[in-house]
Amino acid sequence: MSKFLFVTLPLNGHAYAAAAVAGAVRERGHDVAWAGSETYLRPLIGTDVTVFPTGMRPYRGQRDRGALALKSLWEGFVVPFARFTLPAVDRAVREYQPDVLVIDQHAVAGALVANRYGLRWASLAPQSMELTRPLRALPKVDGWVTDQLVRLWAEAGLPTGSYVDPRFSPYLVLAFTGHALAGDGFAEHFALVGPALGARPDTGDFDRSRLLPGRRTVLVTMGTLANDLAADFYPRVMSALAPMDVQAVVVAQPEVLPDPPANVLVAPRVPVLDLMPTLDAVVCHGGLNTMCEALAHGVPVVVAPIKHDQPVNAAQVAAAGAGVRVHFGRCRPEQLRAALYAVLDDPAYRAAAGAIRASFTAAGGAGEAARRLAALAEEA
Q: N or C, which end of the chain is more exposed by having fewer CB within 10 Å?
């Protein structure tokens, strides 16, 4: 039996996949502990797993777009979060003595501590931003991010000459996408395992009785960090949906959409994975988590990317023929409606989504990630 310490962020798109992998690791008979926000993690991982608390540091840089959004992500969250959690992650490693650390690419403190103690570590890539390196097209931004990481490396007391990019483990990188979307050409230690799907916190207050069996169903979700940015987008979606012969579930606070059309159910919390097998289309912001969950169920998507890796994901799904990309800021209701009719009525989109589903199944998901982590521990 080996010991694995998971280090992630208190963000659903990151933690859900990590939790699914951790669950698969435990099913193989290994011991798992976490370093993170206990308040956030407990509903996700249960009460029988050890958590070394790091506290919570919220990210508030949500309104920026484009290159500014990238800078605010790193300047307003990733770098401060690394400094804030570094002492706690260090204590967790000294107390737990893991064989392998499993670290979200944006939970940089975990990689710093792994290198501090010479431990093997694996990187989790729940986004395409680091995986496909689109920042290389923005050399000034890419250089600025690298400067932040080098500074954190030095602040952690690590020798400059031994610098390793904390986003990319030299041992194993687990990416929650597939070659059907992200393409080929990755190094041998990169494993594109597809989405890692596991148990989610209960959303028992969701009213399923309003969903009619046999009627085409659409899910609209713009992610947990985009509610303020989506305030103008949601009304346009409502106008698009109102005349359509579909029923829709929109993930939003009711006060954001106080008077939805009769065919739209607005709910703040939705059991997304439970609904996926019943869906005919998903409208989303292009977060890799939501997009790949839809495609893992063969559901085509309409993608309105906002920031970070979302434009990359939207381009990938459009190129694969499994969805339609629309402009988040300028798309009019009639354009949204046309995009929805396209993915609902043209069987080519569902066929392409089905092909991606098959490739994800072959990639292995959480089980394959756990297998590779176990192999890494054996090498330690």
A: N
Q: Which two tokens stand for residue 375?
A: 């192999």
Question: 208-361: which CATH architecture?
Answer: 3-Layer(aba) Sandwich (3.40)
Q: What are the distances in angstroms from CA 287 to CA 11, 76, 194, 291?
A: 12, 20, 14, 6
Helix residue spans in the chain (DSSP H) = 12-27, 38-45, 66-73, 79-96, 108-116, 128-131, 139-155, 179-182, 233-241, 272-275, 288-296, 310-319, 333-345, 347-363, 365-379
DSSP letter (8 states) at residue 171 = S
pLDDT digits over 142-190, tens only?
A: 788 899 999 999 999 999 899 999 999 999 999 999 999 999 889 999 9
Q: Cα separation of 253 and 327, whole Å?
A: 23
Residue 198, φ and ψ in degrees, nearest 5: -150, -170
| 333-345 vs 347-363: helix crossing angle, rounded to 10 | 70
- What kind of architecture, by CATH, is found in domain 3-194+364-379? 3-Layer(aba) Sandwich (3.40)
DSSP state of 191: E
Would you give the distance in Å from CA 221 to the centre of its chain? 13
Q: What is the side-by-side strand order in the sheet with 31-36?
A: 50-53, 31-36, 3-7, 100-104, 120-125, 172-175, 190-192
DSSP-H helix ranges across 156-217: 179-182
pLDDT value at residue 255: 84
Q: Is the pLDDT of residue 59 over 60?
A: no
d(CA 313, CA 290): 11
DSSP for 89-157? HHHHHHHH--SEEEEETT-HHHHHHHHHTT-EEEEEE-SHHHHS-GGGGSHHHHHHHHHHHHHHHHHTT
Tokens of residue 144, six digits: 């600025």
Alpha-carbon span 164 to 254, nearest angstrom: 46
Separation of alpha carbons 126 and 100, rounded Å: 19
The greatest distance separating any two alpha carbons of the chain, rounded to the nearest whole angstrom, comes to 63
Which burial class, exposed, middle or buried, applies to 367 when counting CB atoms under 10 A from its CB (0-12, 13-18, 19+)? middle
Domain ranges, ordered by start, for the chain: 3-194+364-379, 208-361
